[in-house]
Amino acid sequence: MNSTGKVATVNPLRQLQGAGQSIWLDYIRRSFIEGGDLQRLVEQDGLRGVTINPTIFEKAIAGSSDYDEALRKLLAADPHAGAPTLYERLAIEDVRMAADVLRPVYDETGGADGFVSLEVSPLLAHNVAGTIAEARRLWREVDRPNLMIKVPATPEGIPAIEALTAEGINVNITLMFSLAHYEAVAHAYLHGLERLADPHRLARMASVASFFVSRVDTVVDRALDAIGTPDALGLRGKIAVANARMAYRRFREIFYGEPFAPLRRRGARVQRPLWASTGTKNPAYSDVLYVEELIGRDTVNTLPPATLDAFRDHGRVRGATIEEGLGDAQVALSRLKDLRIDLDAVTEKLQADGVDAFDKSLDQLFTALTDKRGAILGGQVDVQRLTLGGHQALVDARLRAWRDANFARRLWAKDFTLWSTTPAPEIADRLGWLTLPETMHDHLEDLLAFAADVKEAGVRHVVLLGMGGSSLAPEVFQRTFGSAAGYPRLIVLDSTHPAAVSAVASRIDLQRTLFLVSSKSGTTTETLSLFKYFWQRISQVSAKPGAHFVAITDPGTPLVTLSRDRDFRRAFLAPPDVGGRYSALTPFGLVPAALIGADVGRVLDHAWRMAEANAFCVSCPDSPGLALGAALGELALAGRDKVTFFVSPALDALPSWIEQLIAESTGKDGKGIIPVVDEPAATPDRYGVDRFFIYVSLQGDDVRDLDARVAALESAGHPVARIVLSETADLGQEYFRWEVAVAAAGAALGIHPFNQPDVQLAKELALRAMAHSGLRKNQAGRGPQAEDPGEVSADRPEVLGAALRAWVAQSRPGDYVGVQAYLAPADATSAA
User: Fold this and answer.
1) Alpha-carbon distance 515 to 607, whole Å?
2) Which residue, among 489, 722, 445, has the nearest Cα to 597 in the 3D structure?
3) pLDDT at residue 774 above 70?
4) Which of 660-696 are b and which e, b meaning 16 or more Cβ less than 10 Å from the residue's Cβ?
5) DSSP string across 483-528
C-alpha cells in the first residue's frame, strides 16, 4: 500500500521505462549512496542515472555530518587544502561510488544508460579552453566509463561540446532553454562524432541534451499574470511543455532524419533529450505535470527526490505524451508571440541567470567547506545537544525503532502509516512543507522584485491582516530582523478587538500603506472583517483602493476571486499541501519578510541545510529533527509534557511561533505537549518533574545569566535541549527543525499532528456561549459543572471573584484553567 492508501500495483516509474524513457535522479550525497538508498532506487524503481547537484552538496556539507569524517582524513593529509580542492576530492569520490552502483545498468544496456554526471566549474561557462581542459582532467580523475561531464550550452560551451565529443568523452549538455540552444547542441554532437579520433569508440559514445522546463513557466506565467486578460491567463502552465515538445520534434527530425543518417548507419547513438528542472514550482499545478506531459521514446527525465516519490505514488503513464498536441503547442507559442512576450528573450535570460545561479551555488559551497574546515581544525561546536539523564535510554530506543522502521524515508514519502493505520485526510496532503526550502528558492526573484517595487513606491507600512498561522511567522521576522533601511515597517494585526484595530489605524498613513490579506482558506471571518474595514477606509482616500491590497492564500479560494474582482495589487498563492502552522516558509511568511527587506534567500538556504540534515537518507539518530522529536514524545509520555523555553534576547519572538506549532499539533485526543513561553527563569527547586527545558541561544548575545541558570537545571537532573544559532538567518533552520520534531513527536504520542479537530469544536462552543446556552458539561460529558464564570458580569468584581472561587473549588486532579482573554494586544497587557 502506498502513501495515499491505494494498493500498489504496477510502479509508474517502471512504466516510464517501458515507454522508452529513462528516469534519472537529481540528487547525490554520501549517506544516500552508503546507506543503500541509491541501490534501492535502482532495484525497485528502475533508476538509470544520477546527476550531481552542487546546491544539494553544499546543503549536505553545511547541514549534516555526512562529510565530516572524510574531511578530517583529507585535512589530516593536507591541512592547507582549500575549499576548491576539498570539494573536488569529495565530489569525485561520491561520483565514483555512484557510478559503481549504476555500473550494472551501464553494462546491461550496452553503455546506453547507467550514467552519473559531474559538471565542470560554472566559472568556466564562458571559457572554451578552460572548459575543455577541466573536462579532460575530471574524466581522467573519475576514471569510470559511465561518467558524463556536464557542460553548459553557452556560446562558449558549444565548441567545447564538439571537442570533447571528438575525444570520446561523454557529455551532458546543460542549461538549454530554447529551440536555438537545442539546435546548436545537437549539431555540436554530430560534428564531434564526425571528428571522433577513435572510430571504434563511436558505438559506445553517449550524450544527453538537458532541456530545462519548469523555469520557463515560472517566468512566462509572471508575464501572463501581468497582462491579466483571459487569453493571457489561459496560457499559464502551458508554454514550458509546448517549448519542450517543439524541441522533441526537432530531435526526431535530426536524429531520425538525414542529418544523423550516416552516423546512425555506423552505429552511433542518438543524443537523447533530457528534461531538466521538472519539479513543479507553481502550487496550482499538478506536482507531476512535467513528468506526465513529457513521456517519449529516447528521452530522459531527471527528477528531484520529491517528484520521484510523487510520480511513484500517483503518476500516470498515458503513452508518448511528448508527441501529443504538437499542433496545440504551436498555437500556444503563436498566441504568446501575439501577446508580445518574447520567448527567445526569456530563454536567453534564463540561461544567463542559470550560469549566475551555478556561480552562486559554487560560492556557497566553498563558503560552507571553509566553515566546516575551520570547525574541524578548531574543534566543532555541537549546535544541538540533548541532556536527558535517565530518559536518554527511552529516546535512544525510540530512535532505533524509527531507524529499523525506515521512519525518515517514509516521512519524506508522505506515508500516512506513521500516524494512522488507515488513510486520513490532512496527512499526505499536509506534508508539502518538507520541500519548501528548495522549492521556494524558485520564487525568490519574484519575491525580491515585488519587495523592491513596494519600497520604490514609498510604502511606509505593511499591515498584515491574518490570524494564527498566517500571522505568527511574519511577527517573528519583524521582531527578529526589523526593517532594512528604506523598507516599510510590518505591523501584524491578528486581533479584531476594536482598540487593537483603532491603534493600527491611528499609526499609519493610509495612502502609504500596503495591506496583506492573509488567509489559507480565503474565508477566515476575522481576516475578511479586517479587510472590509480597511477597504472602506482606503476607498475614502484613493481612487484605486485595490492597489493597496495583496492577497496571500491557497489556489482557488474565494480570496483569489476577491483579489481579482477588487483589482488587488497582487495575489500570492501558497502550496495547498501545507497547513497554516507549518506555513512559515511559504508566501504566508516569506512575502512579509521580503517586504521588510529581510534576506529571505539566506533564510531559505539555512532551512535547506536543515532539510538536508534531516533528509530521507540520514539515519534517525543522526537527524536533529527526529532526535528532538523523539525526546519531545518520550518525555511527554513519561510525564514531562511542559516544554519550557529560554531564548537569547535577539530570539525572544521565536517561542511564540513554536508554541502554536506544538499546541495545535499535539493537543488532541486527550493527549498533548504544553509549551511554556515567556515564563521567568527560576531556580531548579521551583520546578516539578513535569518539565523539559529548551534553550535556544544566538552566538554573540549576552546570555551569561541564562547559561548559568540552564547549567543549574542540568546539574539538578532536569532534561535540557540546547540549540545554538550562529546568526539570525538560522530562523530558517529552526522553522524546519521544529516542524520535523513536532511531526515526529506526534508519531511517538500516537496522534495525528496535522489535523485540528478542536477548531470546529471551539466554533460550536463559542456559538453556544454567545447564545447563552449555559454550558453545563465539559468536553468528555463528565456531568454537571458550575456556572461558567465567563457568564458573570465583571462590573462587580466581588461577585466575579466569588463565582471564580466556587468554580475553581470543584477542580479535580488533572483539571486545568484556561483564560481566554479578549483584550487588545499591548506590552502592558502581556506583562500583566
Assistant:
1) 27
2) 489
3) no
4) bbbbbbbbbeeebbbbebeeebeeeeeeeeebbbbbb
5) PPTTSPEEEEE----HHHHHHHHHHS-GGGEEEEEE-SSS--HHHH
pLDDT band at 793 (very low <50, low <70, confident <90, very high): low
Residue type, 79: P
Q: What percent of the chain has pLDDT over 70?
A: 95
641, 690 contact by CB (below 8 A): yes
CA distance 802 to 142: 82
Instruction: Of 654, 660, 663, 705, give the one whose Cα is nearest residue 681.
Output: 705
Banded pLDDT at 776 (limits 50, 70, 90): very low
Across the range 402-416, mean pLDDT stands at: 95
How does strand 720-725 pair with strand 384-387? antiparallel
- Residues 56-93 have pLDDT tens digits of 888 888 888 889 899 999 998 988 899 999 999 999 99
Rounded CA gap, 549 and 464, in Å? 10
Rounded-to-integer distance, Cα 549 and Cα 513, Å? 9
CA–CA distance, 337 with 193 (Å, rounded to integer): 36
Do β-strands 49-51 and 642-647 pair in parallel, antiparallel, or remain unpaired?
Answer: unpaired
Residue ranges of E strands in 734-795: none
395: phi then psi, degrees, rounded to nearest 5: -65, -40
Smallest Cα–Cα separation from 630: which of 408, 340, 321?
408
What pLDDT, on a 0 to 100 scale, did the predictor assign at position 781?
A: 39
Q: CA-CA distances (angstroms) from residue 670 to 109, 123, 675, 749?
A: 57, 58, 16, 11
pLDDT for 113 beyond 70: yes
Q: How many helices (H) and strands (E) does the chain have?
A: 34, 18
Quick one: which of 620, 609, 519, 625 has its CA closest to 571? 519
State residue 821's pLDDT score: 78
pLDDT tens digit sequence for 513-562: 999 999 999 999 999 999 999 999 999 999 999 999 999 999 999 999 99
CB atoms < 10 A from the CB of 185, how many? 28
Residue 794, pLDDT score: 58
Per-chain mean pLDDT for the chain:
92
Name which of 136-150, 166-180, 372-386, 559-573 the model is least confident about.
372-386
Task: Write out the H or E segment, with its range, that includes residue 642.
Answer: strand 642-647
Half-sphere exposure of 370 (CA within 13 A, CB side): 8
Phi-psi domain of 659 (left: phi exceeds 0; alpha: psi -120 through 50; beta: other): alpha
Half-sphere CA count of 339, side-chain side, radius 13 A: 25
Query: What phi and psi, each to the nearest 5 degrees, are found at residue 214?
Result: -60, -30
Q: Is the pLDDT of residue 799 over 90?
A: no
CA angle at 681 for the pair 677 and 686, rounded to the nearest 5°: 110
**Known catalytic residue at 520:** no
Q: Pick the catalytic residue: 59, 150, 281, 520?
A: 150
Are 317 and 32 a contacting pair, CB within 8 Å?
no
- Give dist(CA 558, CA 560) in Å, integer: 5
Indicate left, alpha or beta for 26 from its phi (over 0: left) and psi (-120 to 50: alpha): beta
Question: Which band of pLDDT confidence, cut at 50, 70 and 90, is reported for residue 772?
Answer: low
